[in-house]
Amino acid sequence: MKVCLYLELEKLLSRSGIYSAFRNHLQALKTAGVEVTTDPQDRYDLLHLHWLGPKSLWYLRRARKKGIPVVLHAHSIGRYDVAGGFTGTSLVAPLYERYLDRAYRLADALFVPSEFAKQMLSERGLGAVFVVSNGIDLSRFRFSEEKRRIWRERLGLERFTVYCSGNILLRKGVIDFIEVARALPELAFVWFGQYWGPLGFHPRMYKALKRRPKNLLFPGFVREPEGAYAACDLFFFPTYGENQPLVVLEAAALGRPLVLRDVPAFSELVHGVQCLKGATVEEFIAHVQRMAEEPARRLALSREAYRWAMGHSLPEVGRRLASLYRAVLEAGSAVEEESNVG
């Protein structure tokens, strides 16, 4: 079995979670001993696409004509995860979802990173949908005191530090993050991620960013996230909608305790066991303050979160991918049976 794992516009997407998931899957397949190519002009038995640009759709149709099975990785489920993102996305979200549905129906199978995403796509009648984690490289995202020291000096951090990571967009909960930082001036807050200017403009968010408190830093995108994140003490993600963000897995792998918004994508994480969950700024303030004041509680949550992250390791993901590829190649009842057990 030889698989083509293809990501169109790889350089353009190099600062995205899509790119990270693509690289993780590539490494996971190698650990599983699966022969893989990233060149869609090569010969292969199955095509696995991580994005749906025009070239990808062309390769998809060509593969179908040749009788080669095609898997689409559904990093997006439609209007749920695109509205409230980049400028204008709320207006085009319904059209975007219809486009996705048409494209997804062309595939022999869809891979999604969470049970929530599977449920959403299955309810739209999009065929065989399988849950495959985006994966986490536990050898890379391993806590290091040395990297922590270097990055704390680089960022000028001296106090207990709360962080988040992601594109600076309204949907990510940036305004709530700013309000929690304002309410807790005794703590330091850091948001790592790209600011897109007019491409990600929202008047309320722009106003909040201009009036952000002095204890909040926006250092931009970092190319050594494992060090930058280790410099912080708590991961706080008030996002309004995700599928399976890699930053949560990365934080858990680094032993950072988690405070998350209570959204469906995080349903496999249990409040009070692997994380603390909230829905309002007031709840987030209470959770963050509690974590800052209770080191034993932080340790207990971070240990359980790390155990959760281990289940998403690259060897585990590689075995899952290899098994699903075989089912797709065998087609028929094997695909349907696997889809039903999720």
Please give a structural write-up.
- This protein is of the alpha/beta class and 342 residues long.
- The protein has 2 domains: 163 residues, Glycogen Phosphorylase B (Rossmann fold, 3-Layer(aba) Sandwich); 166 residues, 3-Layer(aba) Sandwich (Rossmann fold), CATH 3.40.50.2000.
- It is 45% helix and 14% strand.
- The chain is built from 14 helices and 12 strands.
- It has a 6-stranded parallel beta sheet, sandwiched between helices.
- Helix 1 packs across helix 13, helix 7 packs across helix 11 and helix 13 runs antiparallel to helix 14.
- It is globular, with a radius of gyration of 20 Å.
- The two termini are 23 Å apart.
- 43% of the residues are buried.
- The C terminus is likely disordered.
Number of distinct helices: 14
How far do the termini sit from each other? 23 Å
CATH superfamily of the largest domain: Glycogen Phosphorylase B
CATH architecture of the largest domain: 3-Layer(aba) Sandwich
Poorly predicted regions are 332-342
Quick check: average pLDDT? Answer: 90
Q: Write the element-wise H/E pattern from the N-terminal end onward.
A: EHEEHEHHEHEHEHEHEHEHEEHHHH
Strand order of the largest sheet: 2-1-3-4-5-6
| CATH level-3 fold name of the largest domain | Rossmann fold
What is the total number of structural domains? 2
Largest sheet at a glance? Answer: 6 strands, parallel
Class from helix and strand fractions: alpha/beta
Radius of gyration, taken over Cα atoms and rounded to an integer in Å? 20 Å
- What general form does the structure show? globular
Number of strands: 12
